[in-house]
Design a protein that fits this description.
The protein is of the alpha+beta class.
Length: about 200
């Protein structure tokens, strides 16, 4: 779904149904223990492993990276509605609605089509653009992400039964910039919104 990150390209009706019945609650006014407020962008690296991030934003960045990792795992083996979720693919632990519901819809769509992703997913490169731990109704960290593309992953689905590749009709020629909002709610950070900027390919 950002990473991807994030192909939230499912039929609108399916997405609307699953977002409505998703188990995630909407954020409220709980706040984290720290009260640090930073408004300037943080330094970020070309790869998560070498990140230099404002300590106030690091838990939010970590949550986004875990969401990306677990969502990618779910796309490798999409679970069916009502099926137990592999802990390694439990993106719900790192997200809230509306993102959680959108990802639920996308994974169900893959399952219904009998499609999976294979290969190496795009490498996320999150950059912190703002940190507001005093925000209401919930503390918030904003990120942008221009992932390093992996053509084998993003351009093609694979049929579970035959193993044959199926071109992704929604694949773009260049990775798109993602705007990501991560919030603090129910005692932890999680991805709240992801917007794919169709008019802003990475590097443009």
């Amino acid at each position: 779904m950002e990473q991807r990150r994030w192909p939230l390209l499912v039929p609108v009706a399916l997405a609307a149904v699953l977002v409505g019945c998703s188990s995630g609650s909407q954020p409220n006014t709980q706040t984290p223990s720290t009260s640090t407020l930073t408004s300037s962008p943080s330094m970020t690296p070309s790869s998560p492993a070498s990140a230099k991030v404002d300590p106030a934003a690091q838990p939010a960045v970590d949550a986004y990276l875990k969401f990306t990792e677990t969502a990618n795992n779910a796309e490798r083996k999409p679970h069916q509605l009502g099926q137990a979720i592999d802990p390694a693919a439990d993106y719900g632990k790192y997200s809230f609605d509306p993102v959680r519901g959108q990802e639920n819809a996308y994974i169900l769509y893959l399952s219904q089509q009998g499609w999976v992703r294979r290969g190496t997913p795009p490498t996320p490169r999150p950059q912190v653009t703002s940190v507001d731990l005093a925000a209401k109704p919930y503390p918030s960290v904003s990120l942008t992400n221009c992932p390093i593309r992996s053509l084998g992953w993003e351009q093609t689905y694979y049929d579970v039964k035959t193993g044959n590749p199926t071109p992704d009709p929604y694949a773009t020629q260049a990775p798109l910039t993602l705007n990501v909002q991560v919030i603090y709610y129910e005692g932890h950070w999680g991805v709240y919104k992801i917007d794919r900027l169709k008019d802003k390919p990475c590097g443009a």
